[in-house]
Amino acid sequence: MKIKAAAVVLIFLAAGLLFDTGLAQGIRKPVWAGQFYESDPTRLAYLIDSFLQAANPSSVQGQIVGLVSPHAGYIYSGQIAAHGYQLVRNLDISTVVIIGPSHQVGFEGCSIYLKGSFQTPLGLAAVDEILAGELARISGFGYLAEAHQKEHSIEVQVPFIQRVFPQAKIVPIVMGYQTEETINQLASALAKTLPGKKALVVASTDMSHFLTKEKAREQDNKTIELLKSLEINTLLRKIGRGENIMCGGGPVLALLLYARKLGEAKVAVLSTGDSTAAGGPPDQVVGYMSAVVYLEEKSQSLNFSEEEKKELLTLARKSIEHYLKNGEFLTCETSNSKFLEKKGVFVTLKERGELRGCIGFVEPVYPLSQAVIQCAVYAAVQDPRFPPVKLSELDKIKVEISILSRAEPVKNISEIKVGQHGLLIQQNGRSGLLLPQVATELGWDRATFLKEVCRKAGLPDQAWKKSGSLFKFESLVFGEE
Which run of H or of E encompasses 434? Predict the structure, then answer.
């Protein structure tokens, strides 16, 4: 957003005159070159490349699906935007879908630029007409010429895209009124259209507008925390009420909802700042943020072959036997990369179907093979509920291994699926954990599961209601026949 702008001009159009999906758009000429960014192509390319070279974004482990990028003049937010573009510049991207808010025109839905290209001082960025047409067909959104005519939120992203992905096409989308219906409609269309394509989504937004520096920082920090924790419903309510948090909140939420439909979505903030860094007045601050939206990588996931499972079970049994005979832990050398990856692990011992010992590591603190060795021994000789296992009874004992995914906070108990998720509660220095199979074996429903994990920690039955104390995880469970 232009820093000195005092107000946003809205042109309200009759609903019946909004869209013409058959209109040939042609070349959209640059409007803001020379104001928001350099009009000379040599200077513009040099400036963007300088921004990219100075950027040092943190890497993420997972599949990147989109960026959140600011759209102020480059003097204000160009360096911040560069962190996102630098992170993705080595990706194999064929099309960039750019979603920006409408600053000039008020209308329902979204306007998709269907045909032609966007021109900047760096040349023409062609529209991916096939993908644009698919998005229009599935979403029901068409083309409104006035929405694109003077809109800067899309235009300022294009030169970065041209430098980072010189061969990529674009699909420019301007979002009108940022209603929940429009946001969901666009997110669903993206989820139905983009998978399998080499596509990146860029949600164009600035943060809070025209607050004092102190209030802007406070407001933006709250918004960033909501984004990082994917508090989408809270953000939807704030945007629906028109709160001063993000001018492009609708495009950002469309990106987040699209990502969530693909898998375990995560948001990593790469860079933040505000207009005062470039001389903007401290009582009329605009905030900026660059962030990446990605799908968390299930590193090696919980996918193990039957041979690998048998190898781990054998390792657990041999570890117990070795310790009972020699009083020391077994040493294990392996070249299997899965066994060298750090994992949370529990080893459960059963004798004639009854529990005989169970101990594990919730956090992935040891390589899997080492964790299995230690947990097997601890379950045999250090579970305080049972006397130590004797070598003479080892033949009667069956070994079961549970390999855990990372524990994630439970935001709503409706997320908990009995039989699929285990529960961990941590509160007031106490903790309790129940593996997924416990609820299944004992026939518990979700309410009982929640109550019992609290009791396991020595906490009141309703302790799980305290925000931030309850976590869920999944596990791969396998045992000896």
Answer: strand 430-434
Segment 39-49, tens digit of pLDDT: 999 999 999 99
Taking the CB of residue 283, how many other CB atoms lie within 10 A of it? 12
**Rounded CA separation 355/81 (Å):** 56
- The CATH code of the domain at 11-296 is 3.40.830.10
Rounded CA gap, 104 and 107, in Å? Answer: 10
d(CA 326, CA 381): 13
**DSSP letters of 104-128?**
SEE-SSEEE--SSEEEETTEEEEB-
The strand pair at 11-12 and 105-106 is best described as parallel
Using CB atoms within 10 Å of the CB of residue 227, give its burial: 0 to 12 exposed, 13 to 18 middle, 19+ buried. buried
* Tally of CA atoms within 13 A in the half-sphere of 78 that contains its CB: 22
* Cβ density class 243-271: b for 16+ within 10 Å, e for less: ebbbbbbbbbbbbbbbbbeeeebbbbbbb
In percent, the amount of the chain with pLDDT more than 70 equals 94
Domain 408-479 fold is Dna Ligase; domain 1 (3.30.1490)
CATH 3.30.700.20 fits 306-404, yes or no: yes
Residue 95: phi, psi to the nearest 5?
-140, 135
- Quick: pLDDT tens for 1-32: 333 333 333 332 333 333 443 344 799 999 99
Q: Please state whether beta strands 123-126 and 344-351 pair in parallel, antiparallel, or not at all (unpaired).
A: unpaired
224 vs 325: CA distance, rounded Å: 56
- Provide the residue ranges of all domains of the chain, joining segments of one domain with +: 11-296, 306-404, 408-479
Phi-psi region of 11 (alpha: psi -120 to 50; beta: other; left: phi over 0): beta
Residue with tokens 């980072």: 164
Segment holding 457, helix H or strand E: none
DSSP-assigned letters across all residues of 259-300: HHHHSSEEEEEEEEEEGGGGT--TTSEEEEEEEEEEEEP-TT
415-429 burial, b at 16+ Cβ within 10 Å, e below that, comes to: ebebeebbbbbbbee
Instruction: Please answer whether residues 254 and 186 qualify as being in contact, where contact means their C-beta atoms are separated by less than 8 angstroms.
Output: yes
Say yes or no: do domains 11-296 and 408-479 share a fold.
no
Q: Residue 121 in contact with residue 48, Cβ under 8 Å? A: no
Q: Do residues 452 and 445 lie in contact, with contact meaning Cβ atoms separated by under 8 Å? A: no
Q: Which residues of 460-469 are buried (b: 16+ CB within 10 A; e: fewer)?
A: eeebbeeeeb
Contacts of 104 by beta carbon, 8 Å cutoff, 6+ apart: 8, 9, 10, 11, 146, 147, 149, 150, 151
Is the pLDDT at 394 greater than 90? The verdict is yes
- Give the predicted TM-score (pTM) of the model: 0.63
